[in-house]
Every structure is written in structure tokens, then in C-alpha cells.
Amino acid sequence: MAAGFRLQGGLLVIWFAASFGVVFFANDLQMIINGWPLGYWFAAQGSVFVFIAIVAVFAWLANRREGSSTSSPDPQYEAYKRRLHRKFALYVVCLLLFLAALALAEKWGLKKSWVGATFLIATVSLYAAIGIYGRTSDAAEYYVAGRNIPALYNGMATAADWMSAASFISMAGGLYLQGFSGTPAQPGGLVYVLGWTGGFCLLALLVAPYLRELGLYTVPDYFGLRYGGRWPRMIAAFAAVLCSFTYVVAQIYGVGLIASRLTGVQFEIGILLGLGGVLVCSFLGGMRAVTWTQVTQYVVLILAFLIPVSWLAYQQLGNPLAPFVYGQQLGKITALEKQLLASPAELQVTHEYARRARDYEVKLQNVEAALEAERKELRERLRLLNERHADESIVVLARRELAALPKDSIAARERWSRAMQENQERAKPLGGMPAHVKPFMGDPGGSADEQQAFELSRRNFLALMFCLMVGTAGLPHLLTRFFTTRTVAEARTSVAWSLFFIALLYLSAPALAVLVKFEIMSHLVGQNFDSLPVWIAQWAKVDPTLISVSDVNGDHILQFSELKLGADIVMLVTPELGGMPYVVSGLVAAGGLAAALSTADGLLLTIGNALAHDFFFRGENDQAGAVRRVMLSKFVLLVVALIAAYAAAQRPADILYLVSASFSLAGAAFVPAMVLGIFWRRTTARAAIAGMVTGLTLTIYYITINSISVRSALGLTGSGLWFGILPVSAGVFGILAGTAVIVLFSCMSRAAAIPDPAMPTADVIRL
């Protein structure tokens, strides 16, 4: 046992050095090796390889150590795996033949709309068929797929469950917009690569094997078993619903986005079309159907990501192995950034944005008077147009402008504050985008303001990375996936496979961001507005916030600062940007749909199970009670799906932000009480309750109080930030406060938390 803890401790030290250590000194690691700045390479790739090695080594050594106590291989199980391998190989071959057939059909004249509709119908029908085939009412099958999923396929399913719309759709876009370390308003960039892969080290070393040993159905089951009573389970169930709902709204938004682009239907109808596939799988078959659906979805989404990025790499560099060759473009992008910074036309654009920001600032000094003056001006203009019998289209435009005015001063303050901030950002060089390879904002050797900017930028990067890593170890829908393996050893192996399959995409996302940025800077920028590609207008119709162009300086030439791309669009437009056949665009959309649907499946299942199994759990373990809970889970899942669809139809904040916030919530709510409960016998139920409530409440408060709408409604001024930490990283405060409260309350308790040595803690669970 001591040897096992020494192994974990040593691997955690390596994990810390490869993540927080590398990032902290990233500004000093600027030497160029084969075109790569060393600090950039470590953050984009090197650390990921270290994380994979940590998880694989831990699984191999721990499984080898307990190998003598395990039984010999089960011949039936081995035969079952061989059948799965044959079926999986057949599926991959059929999928490739399907893609080839569609490519030939497009070449022979099949309309683009038919290509998109075929992808949507074929993929959703496949997922629905698996859901119907895997339907069940058995509790073990519904909650944990009968605990019979081999590690390889559970790793694939976990990767699909994990790589949501944020990973597939938004991460490359976030890297495009935020470079290495993000902006003052969004500490993103490579933090997502580090945070979402490094978190699997914590998952493998501290959580997954221990929970699998207990034979649980849901994550709140652990809190009920470890701490006893209803309150720990109830709080855990509430937290599971909260963070999963935040997460699932982002996925359903992505479903609507892609389905509407594939078929041309309205965004809201696209949500309902995609949601049908989700409900058939999770409603009928639970985890059993969801698992095999996610395996098929992983193949779709990984092909959809790797094909366009490999295509772009071959076009630009003559080598399709994008993750290993895109470093050649980093120096070219740095040179193009310097050219744009010195461009007179770009300076004209930034000056115009600065002027608009000042106008909004003046309005915000007296909102009511400014709103009334603007309303009077528009009414007077409309009156004059009517008197002069102006063209009807001009009159309609004026009426729409009047109707679009904020209804009251509160709405005006919120809208104008956002507009002022947006124009202030776009008034900065490169439209507010940082230099791509620069580790942090500011300069540690510059003026006092530059030094402060550098410290804040690095602090926010480290804070967000911490939240993403810890949140990964606490996400209920991810943890539940490791309940489906046959043994603890397979759970460890499954974590290693999961990280491997995830890394295939995460190593390619930074490459895609760089290749797309080079394509835009070198080919799209500088074109006449009349000759811009058609896809810009087509995507703008789907959602104007995704992409917009405007001739700000009036020269009829597209400047880099005049093009605004949302993080959710970069991946989706890559095939059209690179001039690829439309079948690749359809594949990318199908991949994004698969990513969103696979995660939505797992999240809705988690929410339904938390509400039905955990909130209404009364300790009964009879067959009738289990069946009732399964039926209730299905009903709750349907209701939650409709509520989430309504929330997504309101077009909330971008996908990446919503998903990142859910990690803060999960980390603060679950991880301190879960990890301390596993490794520290003295952790008490009262301490766990106090810590969970403290962490969750503090995180929610910090996110809420720093939102623009809340601060405007309450009339709050200033930033409201603690130590300059942005609200997306609110989990830093919740996790630390929750941990401190649990330790303090447990130390104040005289009685040992676990008098029974059979209770589940690390010293009685095999490593």
C-alpha cells in the first residue's frame, strides 16, 4: 500500500511540473527549436505526451501489482471482445464507403443541400437505431451498461462523451482568437489543451479506481455510501444537476447550430431535430445504448476533425501530419501580425472602433437622457421619411431601428455596456487578438502597468487551468463512464485509452487554429468586399454573432480587424475556407453534431438519474424499486431535455464559456469532499456537507456577481474581481474554501469519521 501511494505521489509531482511548472516559466522558455518556441510546444503538445505517459504508467504498474490476485481470463468475455472487434471494424469500413459514395455523388452533381441532409439523416438514424436496439429497463444496464464494457471501447465512449461541442466546435476557435494565453477578458488559448488533458491524471490517480471499486450507479451514490444520511447525497445530486445542465445547454446550442446549417431549417427547429436523436438513445437504453452510440460517434467526430486539418496542412506545407509540422507557420504568422500592426488601413479601423466606444461611454454617463434623445431622433427621422414619401424599404428599416431600441434604461445600460466593451476590444491592435505565440499579456520587464498585466494574465491562465483540471476529476457524467467496466483494473486502463483517444483531437486543435489563421491573414484579408466568399453570408444568416464583416474605414477592402469570427465558427468553416469539397463540410458538421449529441446523451442521463435515483432514493434495493427509479429517470430526462432546449434557443453565452463555468461548479461541489473522503478517514459527514455547500455557493456567487447584466441591474461599479481572477475561474475560490471548511470541521470533530474498517476509503481499496 505504501508503495502504491509513493507511485501516486511521484506521478503527481511530474504532473505538476509538466503543467503548472511549465506554464509559470513559459515566458522564459522562448528558445526556438525546429521552428517551435519551446514554451509554446510544451503547452500545445509536450505536456500532453507527459500526461498520457503518467496515466499509462500508473495503469500498467498498478494493474501489474495486483495481477497475482486477479482471476484468469474469462473465455466468454474474450470471445465477446473478439465479436465487438469484428463489428467495430465492419462499422468503420462501412462509414468510409459511405463517405466515398457521397463524395462521388457530389462530383456527379448531387446538390449541397442533399449532401447535408444525407449526413444528418444517416447519422441521427444510426444513433436512434442503436438506442432502439439497446433499449432496457434493467437498472444495471440502464445506469452502468451492465458493467460489461471493455476498456478500449469504454475509452472511445468516454472520449466522445468528453469531447463535446466545446472541444470539437469551439476549442480551435478559442485558440485562433486567444493564441497562447488569451486576452484580459478571456484567459483561454492553450489552457484548454492543458486543463482538459491534465485533469485525466487527477481522475486516474485520485478518483476513478476508487469509485469503481464500490460498484456504484451514480456519483451521488458515493456521497450517500461514504457519509451516510440523505443530505450528502441530496447536495451531490443538486450539484450534479446544476453543472450538468449548464453543460448540456451548450451542447444543445451546438446541435441547433449544426443542424440548421446542414438542413437550412431555422435554428430552433434544428435544435428539435438533433434532440430527437439524443432522446431516443438515452431515453430508451440509458447507459447501455449511450455507450455504443458514443463509440460510433467518436469515429465520426475524429474523422471529421482530422481530415480537414490534414488537408489544410498538406495544402500549406505539403505534409498531412498537421500536429508535427504546423510549427513552420508560427514564424510566418508572427511576421504577418507585425505587418498588420504597421498597416495604415488597419489603424483607420481601430481608430473608428475607438470613436464608437467613446460614443457609448458618453451615453452611459446619463442613460435615461441618452435613450430618450435617441428615441426622439428616430421618431423625427421616421416622421420626415413619411412626409417625404420615401421608399418603403427605407421606412421599414427606420421602424425596425426604432423598435430595436432598448425598452428601458436597465436594458439600455446592459446593451451599451456590452457594445462599449466590444468596441474597446476591437479598437486594440489586431482587433483585440493577442500575438499568437506570446505566452502572456504585458511584459515582466516593462513598465509597472505592463508588469501588472503580465502577472494578471499568468495568474488567470493558471487559475483557469486549475479549475479545468480539478473540474475534470469531478464531472459526474465523466465519472459515471468508469462505472461501466468489469473491474478496477479495466477502469484504470480505460482512463489511459480515454486520454489517448482525446489527445488525437487535442493535439490537432492548436494546429488547426494556426493553419486557419495563416489562411485568413494571407489569403482572405485584402480581398474586395464584392468578391468575398459566399460562405461568409451563409453562416451570418445562421447566427450573426458567429461571423460578421463590415467596411469600417470605407475602402471596400477587407481588413483583418473588420472580420469578426466567433469561437464557435472557426472549425465549422474550415472546409469552405480551404476550398475543400462540400462533402468534407458535411462531415465536419456531422462530427460536430456527433460531439454535441454524445455529450448531451451522457449529461441528460446524469441529470435524469440524479433527480430520479438520488433525490428520491429511500434505501430500497428490491427489483420493483429499481424498475420504478428507471422509469422515473426516463420521464425526468424527457422533461429536462425540453427545458434545456428552450434555454439553448435563447442563444446564451458562447459554448466555451458555458462549458468552462460548469467545470468550476463541478470542481467546487464534488472534488474536495470526494478526494478527502477517499484518502482521509477523519472526514465527517457534517464537514462534507459544509464544504460542498460553501464551495458551490461561493462559486455561484462569484460567477453571478461579476456578470454584466447583474452588475448593471444592481448598479455596481468597478470590476468586482478578487485578486483579478475572472469569473470563469470562480472554482478556484470554491475549491479552496470547500477544502478548508472540510478539513477544519473534520479536525473539530472528536469522533473518527469511519469507525468501521469496511467503509470505503483509500486504505481499504486496492490500488
Structural description of this entry:
This protein has 767 residues and is mainly alpha-helical. Among the domains are: 2-72 and 111-323 and 452-518 and 579-651, Sodium/glucose cotransporter (Up-down Bundle); 341-437, no CATH class. The chain is 73% helix and 1% strand. The strands form two sheets. It has a two-stranded antiparallel sheet with strand order 1-2. Helix 4 packs antiparallel against helix 10 (231-263), helix 8 runs antiparallel to helix 20 (488-506) and helix 11 crosses helix 24 (582-614). The longest helix has 51 residues, at 267-317. Mean pLDDT is 83; it is low at 763-767.
Low-confidence stretches: 763-767
Largest sheet: 2 strands, antiparallel
The rounded Rg comes to 26 Å
Number of strands: 4
Shape: globular
Report mean pLDDT, rounded to a whole number: 83
Strand order of the largest sheet: 1-2
Quickly name the level 1 CATH class of the domain at 2-72 and 111-323 and 452-518 and 579-651: Mainly Alpha
Helix/strand-derived category reads mainly alpha
Assembly classification: single chain
Specify the helix fraction band.
Answer: over 70%
Strand content: under 5%
Number of helices: 29
Q: What is the architecture of the domain at 2-72 and 111-323 and 452-518 and 579-651 at the second tier of CATH? A: Up-down Bundle
Distance between the termini: 7 Å
CATH topology of the domain at 2-72 and 111-323 and 452-518 and 579-651: Sodium/glucose cotransporter
